[in-house]
């Protein structure tokens, strides 16, 4: 396992402290306190330059209005959440999923998003065929790429922790995501590296190096709490858990990544109960202190 479990040496030209201008907020982080229009305004007011909205929030506000507000506040859409969910129990269901993914690409384009993030989906209802689900992901992704490449919208595969293999994502490691890029081509296809889902991977640093700059499309940060009370809605603020976030950031930046660091926190019993302004201010400070 040599070279996989330890962080690589980092060029002295890479800053040990992150660039404050590269902070982005995934709108899930304060979605329980604010509607999307207020999140956009709040990010701008707190001088946070990146934002990553979710489709349900965007559709509630209206895609055109969302795009107008983001543009008027001079924010960068660091990713659009989300496409994917490719597997289906029938050809008709899979076609429905494909059609919805094309709409997600169109929405991402209207928002001028840097990428469409893909949570690929798990087992179809009633199925135990994990390898079959992964083949459906491969086939659905290939179909979507035909369209996304024609309109120049990059797709970012987000591997999810294995605990989600059944219902959310049967792509669970950076290695699996890299394998898909190898097979389908990395023109307009890459990775969304979410530390909540990938920090534990013994091949993390080797697979970041394998991905290289071309495939590193998004970088999501938060922390893993010990103990974790809820595997979906108990993510930690950076610095409150066990992830070496700085080592991971330095690893992606060693490959040339200079994109945003996107905070994505689901926290039913803590951060979603706090004042949203406090959450954003804490994100800014912890980004500098812990990332």
Description of the structure:
This is Sugar phosphate isomerase/epimerase. GO terms for molecular function: isomerase activity. Pfam families: AP_endonuc_2. The protein is an alpha/beta fold. The chain is built from 10 helices and 9 strands. Strand 8 (216-221), helix 9 and strand 9 (261-263) form a beta-alpha-beta unit. Helix 4 (91-110) runs parallel beside helix 5 and helix 6 (174-184) runs parallel beside helix 8 (204-215).
Quick synopsis:
With 291 residues, this protein is of the alpha/beta class. The protein contains ten helices and nine strands. The longest helix is centred in the middle third of the chain and has 21 residues, at 130-150.
How would the blueprint of this fold be written?
Layout: E1 23-26, H1 36-45, E2 50-52, H2 55-61, H3 63-72, E3 76-77, E4 80-84, H4 91-110, E5 116-119, H5 130-150, E6 155-157, H6 174-184, E7 189-194, H7 195-198, H8 204-215, E8 216-221, H9 245-254, E9 261-263, H10 276-290
Parallel strand pairs: 1-2, 1-9, 2-3, 4-5, 5-6, 6-7, 7-8, 8-9
Helix pairs in contact: 4-5, 6-8, 8-9
Oligomeric status of the shown chains? Answer: single chain
Could you name the ranges where pLDDT drops below 50 across 5 or more consecutive residues? none
- Please list the strands of the largest sheet in the order they lie side by side: 3-2-1-9-8-7-6-5-4
Using DSSP, what is the number of strands? 9
Count, helices: 10
Organism: Yersinia alsatica
Domain Xylose isomerase-like TIM barrel: 56-276
GO molecular function: isomerase activity
InterPro entries: IolE/XylAMocC-like, Xyl_isomerase-like_sf, Xyl_isomerase-like_TIM-brl
């Amino acid at each position: 396992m040599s070279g996989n479990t330890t962080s690589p040496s980092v060029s002295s030209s890479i800053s040990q402290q992150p660039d404050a201008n590269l902070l982005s907020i995934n709108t899930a982080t304060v979605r329980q306190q604010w509607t999307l229009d207020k999140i956009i305004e709040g990010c701008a007011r707190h001088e946070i330059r990146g934002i990553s909205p979710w489709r349900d929030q965007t559709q509630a506000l209206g895609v055109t209005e969302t795009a107008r507000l983001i543009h008027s506040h001079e924010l960068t859409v660091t990713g659009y959440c989300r496409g994917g969910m490719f597997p289906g129990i029938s050809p008709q269901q899979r076609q429905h999923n494909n059609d919805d993914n094309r709409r997600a690409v169109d929405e991402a384009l209207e928002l001028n998003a840097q990428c469409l993030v893909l949570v690929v989906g798990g087992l179809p209802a009633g199925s135990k065929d994990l390898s079959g689900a992964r083949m459906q992901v491969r086939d659905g992704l290939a179909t979507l790429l035909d369209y996304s490449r024609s309109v120049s919208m990059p797709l970012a595969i987000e591997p999810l922790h294995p605990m989600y293999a059944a219902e959310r994502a049967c792509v669970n490691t950076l290695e699996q995501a890299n394998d898909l890029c190898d097979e389908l081509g990395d023109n307009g296809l890459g990775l969304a590296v979410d530390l909540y889902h990938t920090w534990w991977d013994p091949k993390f640093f080797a697979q970041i190096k394998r991905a290289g700059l071309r495939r590193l499309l998004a970088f999501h940060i938060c922390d893993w709490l010990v103990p974790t009370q809820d595997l979906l809605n108990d993510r930690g603020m950076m610095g409150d858990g066990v992830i070496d976030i700085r080592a991971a950031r330095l690893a992606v930046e060693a490959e040339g990544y200079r994109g945003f660091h996107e905070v994505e926190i689901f926290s039913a019993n803590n951060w979603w109960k706090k004042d949203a302004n406090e959450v954003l201010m804490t994100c800014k400070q912890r980004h500098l202190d812990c990332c």
